[in-house]
Each structure stands twice: as C-alpha cells, then as structure tokens.
Amino acid sequence: MNVAKALPLSLSLGLATLGAFSSSASADPQTPAGVDPALAAAQAFVTALENADIDALVATFAEDATVFLPFASDPARLAGKAQIRAAFDAFLKDVRTSGTGPPYLQLEPRDVHVQHFDGMAVVTFHLGTLATPAGDTPARFARRTAVLRQVGDTWRIVHLHASNMEPVEKPSQ
Fold first, then answer.
1. Which terminus of the chain faces fewer neighbouring Cβ atoms within 10 Å, N or C?
2. Which residue from 42, 51, 5 is spatially nearest to 21, judged by alpha carbons?
C-alpha cells in the first residue's frame, strides 16, 4: 500500500519528506572514518523515519529542539522532544500499519549540502517535485534544513525546518 495515498496530503508530504538521507550510518563516536558525523546524525534521523522507529527518531533531537512542519493547517513551532514525539508518533503508527517493512518509507534526497560552524552544522537538501493526488495541482517542491549541534562526540538536531513550495512553470519559448 502506498503510504502517500493512504494519508492526508499535507501529512504525507510533510512528514514523509522530512528525511534527508537514506543510510544506516550512526551518529555516535563510532561513526566510520571519513563520514561527516553531522551528516551521519541526519542520516540516523532519516533511517528512523524510514523504519517508523519513533524512539530512534526522537533520540536524534536535542532536548530543546524545535521543528517547523509544512502544514498550513498547523503552522505552530514544535518545541522539545515531547511535542516532536507527539507530532511524529501518530504518523509513524500509520506508516507501520500501511505496509511491510522496515523500511516503510523510501526517501530520495537530492543536492545535499553540509556546512560546519564551530560545533554547529547546517544540512540542506531537497526531494524534488512531489507527486500529489489527482486533482490536486500543482505539485510541490520539498525543501528541508536541519541544524545540528555537537555535544561532546554526539551530534543532535536542534532545529528542523520543512517547507514546500509550488513550482512556477516557465513559459515555453
């Protein structure tokens, strides 16, 4: 069963596309040599999202983390792990019951970029143009930003921002 078809459009586009990277890399000090540890932390978030693992997902966030989800119906900022857990928990339960897995979701991030700033990192990416159900046009272009902070040898997400935009078609010449 296709999760995106089974869930409301805003939920499936917003939560399913929060992921940045599909990988089993870890965010701990055991990260293999040559792997950017901030990127590995973002990858751990996406792996948890794809596997619909709420505990692993929440563990990737700092205690005081904030999140903006791309829902016009709920533009509020989530603050702290309890609110983040609540926002993702119902979605991930639906994901787990909607198909076989793990992984339940398959994310394909593009144009991944990591910037480091004195114990902080900004990871940006997009997921391209997302399909929408019939009759709901135009499609949406998904952009994501994760801000991470290093605490000792561990990187945690301190802010996750998800935004969708409606691409403007260029007139043919």
1. C
2. 42
Rounded Cα–Cα distance for residues 95 and 147 (Å): 26
8 A C-beta contact, residue 123 and residue 114: yes
- For residue 68, what are its two tokens? 């903006």
How confident is the model over 61-100, as pLDDT tens digits? 999 999 998 766 667 899 999 999 998 898 899 889 987 8
pTM of the model: 0.74
SS (H, E, C) the chain: CCHHHHCCHHHHHHHHCCCCCCCCCCCCCCCCCCCCHHHHHHHHHHHHHHCCCHHHHHHCEEEEEEEECCCCCCCCCEEHHHHHHHHHHHHHHHHHHCCCCCCCCCCCCEEEEEEEECCEEEEEEEEEEECCCCCCCCCEEEEEEEEEEEECCEEEEEEEEEEEECCCCCCCC
Encoded tokens for 134: 């019939």
